[in-house]
Specification:
Two copies of one chain form a homodimer.
Chain A: H1 17-35, H2 40-47, H3 51-64, E1 67-73, E2 80-86, E3 92-98, E4 102-109, E5 114-121, H4 128-145, E6 153-160, E7 163-164, E8 171-174, E9 179-182, H5 184-191, E10 195-200, H6 201-212, E11 221-226, E12 230-236, E13 239-240, H7 272-276, H8 278-290, H9 296-300, H10 310-318, H11 322-346, E14 350-354, H12 362-375, E15 385-388, H13 395-401
Parallel strand pairs in A: 3-6, 6-10, 11-14, 14-15
Antiparallel strand pairs in A: 1-2, 3-4, 4-5, 7-8, 8-9, 11-12, 12-13
Helix pairs in contact in A: 1-2, 1-3, 2-3, 4-5, 6-13, 8-10, 10-11, 11-12
């Protein structure tokens, strides 16, 4: 009778007054951001706090310059009604999307207005440290051109594809750039007087998608970037999922082929990224042309197979080229297989497919979606929705500006 | 300038006084469960509340009969010191593990003492409803034999392998039993006067593992059951992860072979469960013997290949049989591949491997572990630990008794 079963259902969730106050302030800010202009009583109802509590928080937010109170004539009585809105004058955020070809910078105010944009070719710069200088220079230029007081810039978030260590903001490995073990956040902190974040491009994309669909806030959402590389971002219970070391969601390195000898940038073989990314499609097509394969791509490239990109493969397929069609079909199947695995493991409400490969017509999306739904465990009776995300080029930069909480860390 | 980026970082986490009180009570109970006997000041320190707050909560818990106060002589002053412990007299929980061969029932008190056990062969009963009757009869018998007042039984949790719908406690699909769409929780509620839960065996196993390693409470842990079937349970941020419909963690249905024609119970081909489970090993060995393959297993089964189990395959391998060794090596590789995928997507701190296949010696575990670590994305520099879980036969039943929160739903 001395045997014991330890009963443990959860961690101690320490919630003291300070934490509760922080959470309430964040909720009020979120509420004003989504519904403002909105009056205090309506906020109280939405966030589940008393009107006096909202009045106290609102006063604090007004004094901080984050919120402004606007008098509007009441509809019936004519008595002026006070409404709260976010104030765009004092807190601005910079989002930087370091893409393979182009680096995009965006300045966004707390009240969500876009204040400025800037872009430059990523390839101009040779070494990592020099490139970080170029980013910082771009940020200064963006702020100056937007005629914004630098003192009102509250944070800058730089995103790039690859593995980012969550705690330190180091770039562990970014295959597109050949970067390994670069202390990116440290370098940025040394050069810029702002709060700094470094994040993977796929997580920024995921946050952009969630914020574009307010209904997704309470959902479990996986966002997949299908471009030159392949990666993911996972949003669950109101926040991004990171995992133990911040290197979760590496859907590009799921093994989708057990016999392929295609070497992936990660060193393994058979990874989704090595089989079905934009880079993989281009590489496979180039190789086939060099080997004398009978395909339209041979004529298209006029003897320069190195010029073939994934885009060309889709063009050839649309013109009826069997080889290109087979390549794309195989890629769709591999992506579908990796999505099925993701569904079986994570059981999300929604999956968004984003990235350059989706820009080649709805047909490709439909094939991927059908393979995914067919290969996931059917009996589970899940209602997962698979959708295309927004393909607009500024998404990742926009998402990056949204990664700062109003108060506190995280 | 009218363009807008919606800034949304999280859901409104509504925390009112009632929820906070509930959370504090749960924390105090967890603390007494883990450290009791413990005095009020020590609890206050551990859970981060004031001593008066703890005194108030403790008073309530004592009145409910969940906690008892014990006077112990103080070490220095001799003045009696009041310590709190969980009280085993008023709240008991039944855990039921419906296994393929054996159903195990266990009665555990709130203070974690095991009060009784019972088992019966699962195969005795023909139809689903009759089997549920058999479970209920077993629960009554267990309570009577343990000489426990039925009024003190606070809940019963029935676990089985398969897909369980989280909200309703329906068995969506349990391939081992051929059950589809069985309203198991409803049937139990109609027959038993206790709070009822239905859960997948793998989640109960996961909770058992976490509770056996208190350090895991704040960790991200994936627990894999490798037996006749293959499934998983995922524990993250202090609780089990369910996904949108409760059908997450289906690691057995990750596609590990892109060319195999082995048909899985789920209808697809190439699933981990169809390639590397105990059932798959037995089936592959049986087929090989029937086809006249040169293997020790042919002699071992004495003309009755249907009798071959996974255990026999391991025995033959230990005796040097090449065919059996190759089967096991291939299974280890497939399991390693699925674990690598899980690591790439979820980035857990720890993975526990449990279930019957692990009972065949450390060598198999080591192979699986090596394949997993080799196939996951190496550059991520993760520190994931892969360990064997406990292989004791009562784990799942014990885990089931731990699935009730002290207060509230969940």
């Amino acid at each position: 009778m001395k045997e014991r079963a330890v009963r443990i259902l959860g961690t101690y969730r320490r919630m003291d007054k300070h934490k509760m106050a922080l959470m309430n302030k964040r909720n009020v800010m979120d509420c004003i951001a989504e519904y403002g202009p909105i009056n205090r009583a309506a906020i109280a109802k939405k966030v589940g706090l008393s009107v006096p509590a909202i009045m106290e928080i609102a006063e604090e937010l007004i004094q901080l310059g984050m919120v402004e109170s606007v008098r509007m004539p009441g509809k019936l009585s004519g008595k002026p009604l006070e409404q709260l809105s976010l104030c765009g004058d004092h807190f601005r955020y910079v989002g930087v999307d370091v893409g393979r070809e182009t680096t995009r910078l965006m300045l966004v105010a707390l009240d969500r207005k876009v204040l400025g944009r800037l872009r430059f070719p990523t390839r101009q710069v040779e070494n990592e440290s020099g490139f970080v200088d170029r980013i910082c220079q771009g940020i200064h230029q963006l702020i100056a051109e937007s005629q914004v007081d630098p003192a009102t810039v509250a944070g800058a978030c730089v995103t790039m594809p690859g593995l980012i260590e969550q705690d330190t903001g180091r770039v562990i490995f970014s295959p597109n750039f050949g970067w390994r073990d670069i202390p990116l956040r440290d370098w940025l902190v040394q050069r810029l007087p702002y709060r700094i974040k470094v994040e993977s491009a796929n997580r920024a994309q995921a946050i952009y998608e969630i914020s574009s669909h307010p209904g997704d806030r309470d959902r479990t959402v996986f966002c997949v970037g299908l471009g030159y590389g392949i990666g993911g971002g996972f949003y669950e219970k109101g926040q991004l999922y990171y995992g133990a070391s911040g290197t979760s969601c590496e859907i590009g390195h799921i093994r989708v082929s057990s016999y392929s000898k295609e070497r992936c940038t990660c060193g393994n073989t058979g990874c989704l990224e090595a089989e079905a990314s934009g880079a993989a499609l281009a590489r496979k097509a180039q190789r086939a042309v060099r080997q004398g394969k009978d395909t339209l791509l041979a004529a298209m490239c006029q003897g320069e197979p190195d010029k073939i990109t994934a885009r060309w493969v889709f063009d050839a397929a649309h013109q009826g080229d069997f080889f290109a069609q087979a390549l794309i079909e195989q890629a769709a199947q591999h992506i579908g297989s990796a999505l099925a695995t993701t569904i079986n493991l994570l059981d999300p409400d929604k999956i968004y497919l984003c990235g350059g490969l989706l820009k080649n017509g709805d047909d490709f999306f439909q094939r991927v979606k059908n393979y995914a739904l067919e290969m996931q465990m059917d009996q589970a009776g899940r209602r997962v929705e698979i959708l295309t995300g927004s393909l607009e080029e500024w998404n990742v930069a926009m998402g990056a500006t949204q990664l700062f909480p109003y108060f506190g860390e995280g």
